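Researcher: Here's a chain I'd like modeled. Treat it as a single chain, no partners, no ligands.
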Amino acid sequence: MSAPKFPSLFDVSKSSLLAIGIYTGLMLVGNLVWEFAHMPLYTLWEEGTKTQIILYGLHCTLGDGIIAFSSLIIALLITGRRESWLSSMLAFKRTVYLAMLFGVSYTIFSEYLNTEIRQSWAYTSAMPTIPVFGTGLSPFLQWLILPGLGYWWIGRKFIGKGA
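Model: Modeled as a single isolated chain. Structure tokens:
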């Protein structure tokens, strides 16, 4: 009698692993562009040196990549769709919406923690903020638009194609 085999994160198809990798890569590229594009909405743009601005942008891009990857992996683990998330549009949407909820929620938390509690960074007066949360509109939209585009692309390439 053999020991029961428990599913692991790595019990997934090559298509699923490829989709996760491509999505993470797309998010890194998109976030690199976004981070530097919205940098003038942070006080660092006015107060920091060029080196500080570049390092901050790269640091935030790496963090964004980790958030994107982690949000997707957690959604896959919760939905139990490590293998089947690419099998149908319904399975895909359930996973994607949950992953995007994690990304947006973490962003709201992180922006509040770092602007209000730690005061690690601050917005300029040009940054519109979301009432109640006080989160900058740009980082909030960043976590709606970029994952939305990334998942749209993954869906077009992988859904219903033998994944």
